[in-house]
Write a structure and sequence with these properties.
The complex is a heterotrimer of chains A (296), B (264) and C (361). Chain A has 296 residues and is an all-alpha fold. Chain A is built from twelve helices and two strands, in the order H-E-E-H-H-H-H-H-H-H-H-H-H-H. Chain A has one domain: MetI-like fold (Orthogonal Bundle). Classes of the chains: A mainly alpha (296), B mainly alpha (264), C alpha+beta (361). Chains A and B meet through helix 1, helix 3, helix 4, helix 5 and helix 7 of A and helix 1, helix 3, helix 4, helix 5 and helix 6 of B.
């Protein structure tokens, strides 16, 4: 019907045009930039030159070979994946008991408990990181307490702020709600009669968890892991603020290439690799979700 | 269903909540501390707030944040609402990709591509110099998806036959949209707008890339203060920002109790 | 001329033919029911009457004019939706006033008309409530009031009672019958519940696979199903395989497989040798230890195979021949007796020649 098509056109075109202009085109430009030469004063060199009236493309694969040839970059990627992975793991460990508790609490309290998980997430990202600067600072009560224990055990006092430990704490702190919510959404749907049935059939508490609850909650675990791992992989602010020189991640390198040294082609190459990593994780997540949906 | 929970489970939950709230509590607490160091409680003072309100740079940045937040959330709400309805009503290919990807990828990537884009456009045709306008344009781009998701959720929750009933009882397609669809999804739209405003006010990463030297926002100002020297003035501005966010959440929960969860 | 005429209407969704060449007509003032299992096309047909779908071919005539391409808002036809579809952001009054506002009535006339309707459905004191503050039955009445407020030519009802519990449903059936008598508007009612259809309707069209299987008054539909589908779908039914042996005017002889010959009413076009089925309602079968023999009755000896005690009645499965089981239903009308027979009791069954009907398809 003509009328139907007009409605479709009016609804979808404004956002489509806007996002094409300010998301699709910029992203495409970034991808192309990875094959261009850096400009003399940073930024990008022209994509082509006119020589003797002929058009000569000035494109290169140098930026990619630089990435491959220098093991430092590869190590940085591995390190970023390690940080993101550890963040995800710690988030699962912290979020699971909490999500389980909320899901099994009386309906009356559930919304409140859940809101209490979301609330800190709505406060400013920088403030949440800044809070840990105070807590982990050398003068803070927390650091003093830690060092009292450490020296009591006969070790040298340690520094917390500007170390990988601080980065890990910040990463887990910022991403924890992303793990709790999908886990809760999954656990809340579990049929508690399954656990009663398992117990009736002779399963211990531990067996009930590993044989029933855990496998059924895997879709929630995977959803939460994707929500934590992806932003954690591209993080630059937390290492920038809480970390020292040794806790630089791939995000920091990208930021440095784009804004500081202004080597846009190489910054774009790094961004493309990061995008690839994200797509890989998202694709794996989607695959697992589809499998889970088939089973469910 | 409620089962007896072990003490371990309860203790770990309490500790996790402490982990979530203690840092924020400390930020607020030290904003009233009569000491330059965020280390020990010395005494109560409002000095940091007084100082803050005389800090011209901070006030300008706050003004910028407010302007950006209002303008960006307005346009993001318009585009996001259209997109949310379109995503629900039609099977589309490109739009879902364009709307949902900016939410899914790390913010850093959007920041990188947008700064390159703006600088190239500026070199080519001389418009869009990095500053307030580029920040606003970027914020609209990443907020559209969040609004669209909330609005789509609201559309999905709406009984399809409501629109048919309106048509059946004599309303034209446009009247049915204006008199039935729009009022029914309005709580979702308002919640989406508040969410976009909060996201815009709070955004650091994308703003950091697209601001250039031209404009500063509250989060950028906080960032440079943190990087240079930590003073309780940061605590004061942080506390105020948290208060603002909390107020917005209370409004959102009054308008649409389910929107808070629907948006995440 | 009938008020509503449906001529050779076809509707396809992709490869699926939802409505396959349906023709029927509905008279003014009639309570007409489309009955069938889910997916039989009854709802699609209703949606075409409302204007939400357009037929691929065929015509829908209202007062003699083809309305099949007229949009829903331009048809003097209203729908009561299964979900009621009350506007959640409007009060009961605003909901009922909606069609009048769309039609451009002036505010004063709207007020008096809405008052009248509220009174009709006994909701006068609920005018300022919102839908979510009403019970299921009240919502249902608002939906009906809203659809009747501007006196449409036809009211379409899409399984309006399915969301109510059994008790309330029975009460609402009586209210619907009375309401329809009162307002005199033509009702087209869609349901999958045969009891509801039999209780409410003047005429019923039984549908299956997009086609009308039988269109008749409720009594005929029940006692003389036209084919196996209708016999199976409406109530309990014994369906016994058999072959026509001889036709003798109004009666004919049928050889029931494994049992022997019986007499039954003849059907048009029946010829000796034609295979078919004898359909018999369980409550029309006599059952006792011994039964007298009559000329106009079929008569068999058998053994009780199973009994189903249902409270008001008991159903006895009687094996009259190897593998041939006839269900008979007896009311439990003697106090203190739950079952007249036990498993393995030897009994006799009988039925009048006009108790069943012979089905050829």
């Amino acid at each position: 019907m003509l009328r139907n098509r007009l409605g479709k056109w009016l609804l979808s075109w404004p956002p489509l045009v806007y996002l094409t202009l300010f998301f699709l085109i910029p992203t495409t430009i970034m991808f192309v930039a990875a094959f261009r030469n850096p400009g003399d004063y940073g930024g990008l060199a022209p994509m082509y030159n006119i020589e003797d009236g002929k058009l000569v493309w000035d494109l290169t694969l140098d930026n990619f070979s630089r990435l491959v040839e220098e093991p430092l970059y590869f190590e940085l990627f591995l390190k970023s994946i390690g940080y993101a992975g550890l963040t995800t793991l710690l988030c699962v460990l912290l979020a699971y008991p909490l999500a389980w508790l909320i899901a099994t609490t009386h309906k009356k309290w559930r919304d409140l408990l859940l809101l209490m998980v979301i609330l800190p997430f709505w406060s400013n990202f920088l403030i949440r990181i800044y809070a840990w600067m105070i807590i982990l600072g050398p003068q803070s009560a927390f650091t003093k307490a830690v060092n009292w224990v450490v020296t009591g055990l006969g070790f040298e006092p340690i520094q917390l702020l500007f170390t990988p430990i601080a980065v890990m704490i910040g990463m887990v702190y910022v991403h924890l709600p992303f793990m709790v919510l999908p886990l809760y959404a999954n656990l809340e749907k579990h049929d508690m009669a399954l656990l009663d049935a398992a117990q009736d059939l002779g399963a211990s508490a531990w067996q009930r968890f590993w044989k029933i609850t855990w496998p059924l909650s895997l879709p929630g675990v995977f959803a939460g892991s994707a929500l934590v791992f992806i932003p954690a992989l591209g993080m630059f602010a937390i290492p920038d603020i809480l970390g020292g020189t040794d806790s630089i991640l791939i995000g920091n390198l990208i930021k440095q290439q784009i804004l500081d040294t202004r080597d846009w082609p190489f910054g774009s190459v790094l961004s493309i690799v990061l995008t690839g990593g994200v797509l890989l994780i998202a694709g794996l997540g989607a695959l697992v979700a589809r499998k889970g949906a088939k089973r469910g | 269903m409620a089962k007896k929970k072990s003490a371990w489970l309860k203790a770990s939950a309490v500790l996790t909540y402490l982990f979530l709230y203690l840092p924020l509590f400390i930020v607020v607490l030290y904003s009233f501390n009569d000491s330059k160091l965020n280390a020990e409680w010395v005494g109560f003072t409002l000095d940091w707030y007084t100082k803050l309100f005389h800090n011209q740079k901070m006030l300008t940045a706050a003004g910028h944040s407010l302007i950006i937040g209002v303008v960006a959330s307005f346009f993001a709400t318009v585009f996001g609402t259209l997109a949310g309805i379109a995503l629900h009503k039609y099977k589309l290919r490109l739009l879902p990709f364009l709307v949902l990807t900016p939410i899914a990828i790390p913010e850093l990537l959007m920041g990188v591509s947008l700064v390159i884009f703006f600088v190239i456009v500026n070199q080519l045709i001389g418009i869009l110099e990095l500053g307030l306008v580029t920040i606003i344009l970027s914020h609209i781009a990443f907020c559209i998806g969040f609004v669209a998701i909330v609005v789509r959720a609201r559309m999905q929750g709406m009984d399809e036959s409501l629109v048919e009933a309106a048509r059946d009882l004599g309303a034209s397609p446009f009247q049915a949209f204006r008199l039935v669809t729009l009022p029914v999804i309005m709580p979702g739209i308002i919640a989406g707008a508040l969410m976009a405003f909060t996201l815009s006010i709070d955004d650091f990463v994308i703003t950091f890339f697209t601001a250039g030297a031209g404009a500063s926002t509250l989060p950028l100002e906080i960032y440079s203060m943190i990087k240079i020297a930590v003073t309780p003035e940061v605590n004061a501005v942080s506390s105020l920002l948290m208060l603002l966010t909390l107020a917005l959440i209370v409004i959102a929960s009054k308008v649409s109790p389910s929107a808070l969860r629907g948006g995440n | 001329m009938a008020l509503l005429e449906i001529n050779n209407v076809v509707k396809r969704f992709g490869d699926f033919t939802a409505v396959n060449n349906v023709s029927l007509s509905v008279e003014a003032g009639e309570f007409f029911t489309l009955l069938g299992p889910s997916g039989c096309g009854k709802t699609t047909l209703l949606r075409m009457l409302a204007g939400f779908e357009q037929p691929d071919s065929g015509a829908i005539l209202l007062d003699g004019k083809d309305v099949s391409q007229v949009p829903p808002e331009k048809r003097p036809v209203h729908t009561v939706f299964q979900s009621y579809a009350l506007f959640p952001h409007m009060t009961v009054r605003q909901n009922i006033a909606f069609p009048l506002k769309m039609a451009g009535w002036d505010a004063k006339k709207i007020e008096t008309q809405v008052d009248e309707l509220l009174e009709d459905v006994r909701l006068t004191q609920f005018g300022q409530r919102f839908p979510h503050e009403l019970s299921g039955g009240q919502r249902q009445r608002v939906a009906i009031a809203r659809a009747l407020v501007d006196r449409p030519r036809v009211l379409l009802l899409d399984e309006p009672l399915s969301a109510l519990d059994a008790k309330l449903r029975e009460q609402m059936q009586i209210e619907l019958i009375n309401l329809q008598k009162e307002v005199g508007i033509t009702f087209v009612y869609v349901t999958h519940d045969q009891g509801e259809a039999l209780a409410l309707s003047h005429r019923i069209a039984v549908m299956s696979h997009g086609q009308v299987e039988q269109l008749d008054i409720p009594e005929r539909i029940y006692s003389h199903p036209k084919n196996r589908f209708v016999a199976d779908f409406i109530g309990q039914c014994n369906v016994l395989e058999g072959t026509v042996k001889a036709v003798d005017g109004a009666t004919m002889t049928v050889d029931l497989k494994g049992c022997g010959t019986v007499k039954c009413q003849s059907v048009p076009n029946a010829k000796p040798g034609q295979a078919g089925w004898l359909a018999l309602r369980p409550e029309k079968i006599k059952l006792d230890k011994e039964l007298g023999r009559h000329d106009d009755e079929a008569h068999f000896k058998g053994r009780v195979h199973d009994c189903l005690y249902l409270g008001d009645v008991t159903i006895y499965m009687v094996e009259v021949a190897e593998g041939v089981i006839i269900e008979a239903m007896l009311p439990n009308n003697i106090p203190g007796v739950a079952k007249f027979f036990d498993d393995n009791d030897v009994v006799e069954v009988a039925w009048r020649f006009d108790a069943g009907s012979f089905l050829t398809e």
